[in-house]
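Hi R.,

Here's the chain you asked about this morning:
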Amino acid sequence: MAQPFNASTISGAWADSVTGPTMYLRGRYYISCLMGSITSIPTNATVTLVQWSWNIANKPAGLIVYLCDTIGGCLNVSDYQSAGSEAFRGRSENAEY
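And here is the predicted structure, written out as tokens:
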């Protein structure tokens, strides 16, 4: 499912980053700002590979991290702090994450 990060596999890509929210309590949902391309993308463009990297200081035991798109798909990336996946393949490239 997840693959090691390999920047050489990127084609027609965009990149973005956000600073996540401060987490105060266990058992709560915290949501980061959406990320999306700042350039115009053809309406028929589709995703082939999504790569990500996330980090947290003092990662609490049991932390669950999801990478989601605005189309409604989510991928549990809790065990993959820097990886890539084709789980979003075929979805609109105009989705935000």
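One quick note: Strands lie at 3-4, 50-53, 66-68, 74-76, 82-85.

Cheers,
M.
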